[in-house]
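Narrative progress, year one. The postdoctoral researcher (J.K.) led the effort to move from monomer predictions toward full complexes, under supervision of the PI. The following entry was the first complex the group processed end to end, covering 760 residues in total.
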Amino acid sequence: MEMTTPGIAPQGAASHTEPAPHTESPHTEPPHTELSGAEITVRCLQEEGVPFVFGYPGGAILPIYDEMFKQDKVKHVLVRHEQAAVHGAEGYARVTGKVGVVMVTSGPGLTNAVTGIATAYMDSIPQVIISGQVPTHAIGQDAFQEVDTVGVTRPCVKHNFLVKDVRELAMTIKKAFYIAATGRPGPVLVDIPKDVQLSRTTFHYPASMSLRSYNPVVKGHAGQIKKAIQLLLQAKRPMFYTGGGVVLADASKELVELVRALGYPCTNTLMGLGAYPASDRQFVGMLGMHGTYEANMAMQHCDVLLAVGARFDDRVIGNPRHFDQEQRQIIHVDIDPSSISKRVKVDVPIVGDVREVLQEMIRHLGTLKERPDAAALKQWWAQIDQWKQRDCLRYDRGASIIKPQFVVEKLYEVTRGELILTSDVGQHQMWAAQFYKFEKPRRWLNSGGLGTMGVGLPYAIGAKLAMPEAQVACITGEASIQMNIQELSTAKQYRLPIKIVNLNNRYMGMVRQWQEFFHGNRYSESYMDALPDFVKLAESYGHVGMRIEKPADVEPALREAFERTNDLVFLDFITDQTENVFPMVPGGKGLSEMILV
Amino acid sequence: MRHIISLLLENEAGALSRVSGLFSARGYNIESLTVAPTEDPTLSRMTIVTSGSDDVIEQITKQLNKLVDVVKVVDLSDGEHIEREMMLVKVRAAGKDREEMKRMTEIFRGRVIDVTDKSYTIELTGTGTKLDAFLNAIERGAILETVRTGASGIGRGDRVLKI
Ligand SMILES: Cc1ncc(C[n+]2csc(CCOP(=O)(O)OP(=O)(O)O)c2C)c(N)n1
């Protein structure tokens, strides 16, 4: 079969049925032309300019698949498990900022997708999920492959719809895209019964829309912004703490400008990495459970804290009561009012789009003559530099077995920090966050909120499809990778030359670490027995596999892998089984109560 | 503290379960919840009686506002407001108790809305405390069945909740 776009096989023969016409006025059909619900669905996706849909067919969504077959504007990416469809769409959305689209059938198709949907929800990833449903007359009859989709997904979507009338279909899909992409983004599901897919009506796709019940605040309150700048200028020990919201709002440029203008230290959360360049002197590293000593200490001891697009969650500040013990003024900028004063009481709340607010802050700062207290700042930086001396990320560089941190450092060197790097969940994720220095946003893809093992490979698939020119790698563990290993087949079908960096310690390493620290070395069910031969496994899927066992082979192997520009290479690094992630703030402890190497 | 929260929400299938699901998912209390369409059939009006610390109530109103179907939220307890609940009580009313039951109903400004030779069904409206007081005032053993609507609330004076 001929390839059209790199890595994407054409969907059937686009010619044997009239492809959806795209005329001067794409929004209306000639009067009286009635389309089926299935055609309307696909037309809506075309109108939204959706390049890829990640999905898996089944009975209740076949009419829509039939319409997908008849066109080639919207490409379908066939995954091997619906969970991976959702993660694939997330990967696409995380690197592009655009809405990712998923298509699944009713019942098991949908329930398989739920883990992905919850993952997207926790990380505020814009997404539209189209699910097939049993015909309306069968709903509630315990029909074959019937599940209460709207009920099952309600707690883990931003919003969802069951479309009972084909005349409401186009409007509903429009709403779904609008809700998914605006305000605090998130997944929105549209459940379409099979009879609605088959009923006909005229098609009209609204150009824009508004909802009386949904009006996210965009502009920050001017008075609050002034107050915030005042506080920041008076600070003796200021600190910037920024999260995934800065990435989602594409506000990295503004953040850098403000941080540089003030000369203050900046830390990023796991989800916020890349929003501030990691190599910059004012960057103190990631904070939180596995954050750097200096970031956590500065966070704990600052007197004015500017939190931007972050939510003070348990993995970031640990015990909120311990955090409250230190006196500090907190300014919190977020698009979601419910994120403010949820776990930590805030002094200056600013609700608004993070980018707009930062722009306003920069503008306002520019109008003032006041500057930060240079003497106090000098002292504060001296303190931070002293904390840095603790060298909290040190590890044994001369070890004779491969240290996982060493692999990440080499990966950074070999790729000159330019990767789009996806990760699974566990120790490898933390080492990647600590040792791969992200200079730009949207290059670090991981499941921070839900912590879903198995996201890494499908994220890489979504990212590579979205950015065929970029180098995409997935850092993973031998446990996580097996959660969606079947996607090696998807990567083959769409010719996606991803590099998989497997830090194989034969353990669910993060679980083993907790068992070592908190459960008396009782390694209950965390040993990964009966592992496959990953080299042969990769080969059987038609990829290249490499096994690396000596530190000296790490760099050459990485170089070779990245030189193989057309191959998916599975690098199986046999690493130290006993290595732990440091620093660590144990659950329930305070930020400054770290376990250190 | 006890709060009475009023909301206007889209009169859509599932809107109620979004609200009740929010309360159970986040562990908020619901003392009572009432809902019915308004004069504008596209909107429903809901009254929720809940309790919690100031922080919790702040989160509740924020989380409710975040629901896409919710158009407006006010915490009526922030200002002067009126609260009413309706109760239907079926009581044993035979022999000499019959007169006494009728008298109590009148004192509480209730109405007898159904009668058999052994029972009355009484309709009573008022604040929750008044309804409780009535139940305490009549003889416990006479109560056969009660059903209460939960509180509905509205702001006093010119304050209106409208879109
Ligand atoms: C779906 C899912 N199940 C269970 C967990 C709990 N969990 C967190 S880390 C981890 C171990 C991961 O092991 P591996 O992928 O080998 O990575 P390592 O920690 O060894 O680097 C487990 C089981 C999870 N995060 N996600």
